Amino acid sequence: MYSVSVTAPVNIATLKYWGKRDSVLNLPTNSSISVTLSQDDLKTTTTVSCSDSESYSVDQLYLNGKLESLESLRSQKCLGELRKYRSEMEAKDGSLPRISEWPLRIVSVNNFPTAAGLASSAAGYAAMVYGIARLYRLPLDRSELSKIARQGSGSACRSLYGGFVAWEMGSKKDGTDSRAVQIADVGHWPGIRAAILVVSASKKEVPSTGGMQLTVGSSDLFEYRVKNVVPPRYKEMEQSIIKKNFEKFAELTMRDSNSFHAVCLDSYPPIFYMNDTSKRIVKLINELNKSQGRNVAAYTFDAGPNAVIYYEEKDEHLVLGVLNEFFGHLPGWDKKRSINYSLPDRFPIDLFNKDIFSQGVSSVILTGIGEGPKETQEVLKMP
Amino acid sequence: MYSVSVTAPVNIATLKYWGKRDSVLNLPTNSSISVTLSQDDLKTTTTVSCSDSESYSVDQLYLNGKLESLESLRSQKCLGELRKYRSEMEAKDGSLPRISEWPLRIVSVNNFPTAAGLASSAAGYAAMVYGIARLYRLPLDRSELSKIARQGSGSACRSLYGGFVAWEMGSKKDGTDSRAVQIADVGHWPGIRAAILVVSASKKEVPSTGGMQLTVGSSDLFEYRVKNVVPPRYKEMEQSIIKKNFEKFAELTMRDSNSFHAVCLDSYPPIFYMNDTSKRIVKLINELNKSQGRNVAAYTFDAGPNAVIYYEEKDEHLVLGVLNEFFGHLPGWDKKRSINYSLPDRFPIDLFNKDIFSQGVSSVILTGIGEGPKETQEVLKMP
Questions:
Q1: Do B270 and A282 touch (CB under 8 A)?
Q2: What are the Mvd1 C-terminal domain coordinates in residue numbering (chains A, B) (predicted)?
Q3: How far apart are CA A312 and CA B245, in angstroms?
Q4: Chain A residues lying within 8 Å of B275, measured CB to CB
Q5: Contact call for A286 and B272, based on CB within 8 A
Q6: Judged by CB atoms within 8 Å, which residues 240-269 of B form the interface with A?
Q7: Considering only CB atoms, which chain A residues are within 8 Å of B267?
Q8: Pairs of residues, one from chain A and one from chain B, whose beta carbons lie less than 8 Å apart
Q9: φ and ψ of A196, to 5 deg
Q10: What's the confidence (pLDDT) of residue A115?
Q11: Is residue A54 over pLDDT 70?
Q12: B228 contacts chain A (CB < 8 A)
């Protein structure tokens, strides 16, 4: 019996992935960029093991304590590719144990709510692929592994790296150049912080895959976004990261969130992921930025109503000063309880009815930029 | 003393006007199409008079019982142009009384809430321009008058006609070819009905003029909408009206509403006019259409959360069957109180939590397609 345990992070895109040009290979219609979030606060832990003992009769996945199917084409493609690499190694080197033929057991837990728009599938597939690759001792770098994880869940490919990560869409039909690369590691710009405002922990109304293909097939504005808006924005965002220009990075992040939700709304029938609570959060951030005469914070929304607010550590007193005013009573402030926040100077608090603006958010997660998948000593047992 | 009284209708665009290429002349970035609504339910009544008596010392406007300013550039341009035409007539024909020099008194009332996204300024400027033109006996057709009303409020130009109306954007710099024309009169397709769901009667958060210029200046998708999406849609919508093809007319109307709100959302900072109540109405209409296997109703949203639902009279039992289920307890059903509505066959009522879906709408206005401005015997007195 062989076993390895790993952890993998969540990533939240600042330049959004929305639309597949090939939905079997999970090839996107545009390149995207994300920030990997700290595993101190959000992570998937996965123990993968394989054995030829009787208790390992078939491949099994236990997710958050429940036996889940591995029958989906997506899971099968990940497992199949990893096994193929291993069996090729075994064929070349007769001294290697032939574990590629053994059943796998994957035990995985998230320390955050699943499928609530918090990119749990990204962390989950990244952990599974990274874990099996370590178990099999595959000589593949993270970019190679990202191509396998991509076939499980598109955005999972970006969770193979820490820091700032790009998913290069590639141009080949077989997808071999559609992979994640690191734009900059955590050490390049360690002061990037993220505050997640959890608006709803219920399951998504419109799942991402169905939603994005509805947009691809019906939005009149979508193709223009993909061909004309995203490519120059990608380069600008990459530069803003390299130059640590938060003002620009924030503007591009907010603009791209808006653009993504705009093409969702332009779908037929329209898709709405942001709700009235999301919009109130947009207004809070806009007014904070206006009051300071610069972008101290950037909102971004994925395929759900939750907000992720990026900011720099040096401005934490400003951003958390506002968030604490409205959401300070909610779970998630433990690490900051001792700090006495106050509203930033010039913040136009009179514009906001506090009763209304405090509504709809259920918890807060205060985190920051973080590292990619890594091995861990923690071993998860079958439930 | 000379006096004329007129009434003018509201119009609700099915192909939206959003964006000015010249904000002094109110020249739009795209042509638009609207349905004129029946004055039985929504109208502005305006009495215009002029006199050289002492009580008429300056031009005055009384709107809904309150003295309002006529100082705005927009009002001044309308009054100035009408006076210029009159004074040219007077110069040519010495027998005409020189009333162009006399102060004007304009007394105007709406029978619906002002500035709640119900196009009150369109009806108001149309009534004022049409009324003064009648007072002055100007030999100008409605299309000529539409160019004057356009300078007061862009969409007012479409309220000069009944039925289905296009505002041709024109190409001339001086705006002399930017005017309303009638696509078809009421008699062509009299069975078009409209149900207005009034979501909020408060003033708009983002006024249209500021909102549209923010979109023009900041949305990456806007120019594509204007240049590539609207022109073919305009032709298709015009054809759908001429052919009385409701299926197509409804699809184009919903798509264009989505597209307009998408470019609002794509603005920086984003503009949101639809709220969670608006989105629930979209879902009701989508599910109604799906359940019937055809478009029996089309939603459209202007620069506010109110919904306008267009449908054909022959499908009234289906559309009002659904609306009555959720909004039957609200004001606005008087004319239909005697009818026993029931939910349409196959409508998936289980998808809707009635408590939630009934929220947020304050009243209903059941109306239909109607005629353009006309003279009336009703005389409004100065309050």
A1: yes
A2: 195-374
A3: 55
A4: 276, 279
A5: no
A6: 251, 254-255, 258-259, 261-263, 265-269
A7: 258
A8: 75
A9: -100, 125
A10: 46
A11: yes
A12: yes
Chain position carrying tokens 């939905």: A23
The predicted-structure confidence for A189-235, as pLDDT tens digits, reads as follows 999 999 999 997 555 567 788 899 999 999 999 999 999 999 999 99
A220 in contact with B, Cβ within 8 Å: yes
On whether any CB of chain A is under 8 Å from the CB of B206, the answer is no
Tokens of A277: 């609570």
Chain A hits for B237, Cβ within 8 Å: none
Do A262 and B263 make contact, defined as CB atoms within 8 angstroms? yes
How large a percentage of chain B has pLDDT more than 70?
97
pLDDT above 80 (res A141) = yes
Please determine, for the modelled complex, whether the ipTM score is greater than 0.90.
yes
Q: Is the pLDDT of residue B383 over 90?
A: no
Q: Does B272 touch chain A (CB under 8 A)?
A: yes
Amino acid at B93: D
What pLDDT, on a 0 to 100 scale, did the predictor assign at position B116?
Answer: 55
- pLDDT at residue B202, as a whole number: 55
Q: How far apart are CA A164 and CA A249, in angstroms?
A: 12
* A250-265 residue pLDDT tens: 999 999 999 999 999 9
* DSSP single-letter state for residue B214: H
Confidence (pLDDT) at A72: 93
Task: Give CA separation, A350 vs A81, A278, A284, A287, B332, in Å.
Answer: 58, 20, 12, 11, 36
- Which residues from chain B sit within 8 angstroms of residue A282, using beta carbons? 269-270, 272
The residue-averaged pLDDT of A138-167 equals 98
Task: Give every strand in the sheet of B297-301, ordered side by side.
Answer: B297-301, B307-312, B192-198, B363-368
B114-140 mean pLDDT: 88
Min Cα distance B114 → chain A (Å) is 23
For tokens 């992570």, what's the residue? Answer: A43
Of B259, B268, B282, nearest to A266 by CB-CB distance is B259
* Rounded-to-integer distance, Cα A159 and Cα A237, Å: 18
- Rounded CA gap, A185 and B10, in Å? 58
Please state, in angstroms and rounded to a whole number, the distance separating the CA atoms of residues B10 and B16.
Answer: 15
Q: Given this model, what pLDDT does residue A116 score?
A: 55
pLDDT at B113: 66
In angstroms, rounded to a whole number, what is the distance separating the alpha carbons of residues A337 and B173?
Answer: 62
Mean pLDDT along residues A102-111: 96
Indicate the helix (H) or strand (E) that contains A17: none
- What is the spatial distance between Cα B261 and Cα B283, in angstroms, rounded to a whole number? 16
- Min Cα separation B251/chain A (Å): 9
Residue with tokens 């369109």: B122
Residues A238 and A182: their CA atoms lie apart, in Å, by 10
Q: Which of A326, A256, A226, A244 is nearest to A285 (CA)?
A: A326
- Hey, what long-range contacts does A63-66 have (CB within 8 A, 24 or more apart)? A63/A108, A63/A109, A63/A114, A63/A124, A64/A108, A64/A109, A64/A110, A64/A114, A65/A109, A65/A383, A66/A383
Cβ-Cβ contacts under 8 Å, A267 against chain B: 258
What is the C-alpha separation between A328 and A314, in angstroms, rounded? 20
Distance CA B176, CA B144 (A): 9
CA nearest to B279 within chain A:
A272
Q: Which two tokens stand for residue A370?
A: 């973080």
Q: Which residue ranges form the domains of chain A, and what is each CATH number?
A: 2-186 (3.30.230.10), 192-368 (3.30.70.890)
pLDDT at B203 over 70: no
**What integer pLDDT is reported at residue B120 of this predicted model?**
80
Structure tokens at B94: 């010495």
Which A residues in the span 274-293 are in contact with B, Cβ-Cβ below 8 Å?
A: 275-276, 279, 282, 286
Please tell me which of the candidates A262, A270, A286 has its beta carbon nearest to residue B266. A262
